[in-house]
Amino acid sequence: MREAVVRAVGDALIEVGLAGLDLADVARRAGVGKTTVYRRWGTVAAAVADLVDDMVETSAPRADTGGLAGDLRANAELVAETLADPRQGRLLAALIAAAREDERTAEALRRFYAARIAVWEPCVTDAVARGELPAGTDAAAVVRAVSAPLYYRFLTSGDAPEQADVTRAVDAAVAAAEAGAYR
């Protein structure tokens, strides 16, 4: 039931935005009783927060290629694939818009990104341990430096990042990290 409701929340958010999201409609879309939805989630904000929590729980694990550039490339490609996915890209855009309107959604989205960054931080800490990067490199900053240009392209142009964007983001982050810019 949770899976159906979470999917329905995402579908509705994509179609009507946060302002148009209605728990009765979510129940109908999910094929469950609206009493069940109201009892378990209670508010639209709670349902959207659960959607984001589900995204954290079901996100892909990090790759371990054995080298910083390969690991960060795997991360960047995952971000690019997610943004290119017809549903996932639209859902992330809808969640970002919803976060501007609702603090609970904003907090859930911050938790999502914090969790995703935490999953990928070992790419950087492992690179420091191997001597690829200077000691004291801020792992979260390096991971954000890879993802940020990809999200920026998506949010400002509406286009999913291309392979050239992935390469540029990874190359720039690696070069900056090697130069000590993230210490």
From TrEMBL:
What residues are annotated to bind DNA?
A: 22-41
* Annotated HTH tetR-type domain residues: 1-59
Domain of life from the UniProt record = Bacteria
List the InterPro entries. Answer: Homeodomain-like_sf (IPR009057), HTH-type_TetR-like_transc_reg (IPR050109), HTH_TetR (IPR001647), Tet_transcr_reg_TetR-rel_C_sf (IPR036271), TetR_C (IPR011075)
Keywords recorded for this protein, A-Z: DNA-binding, Transcription, Transcription regulation
Q: Does the keyword Transcription regulation apply?
A: yes
Protein name (record): TetR/AcrR family transcriptional regulator
Please report the organism this UniProt entry assigns to the protein.
Pseudonocardia xishanensis
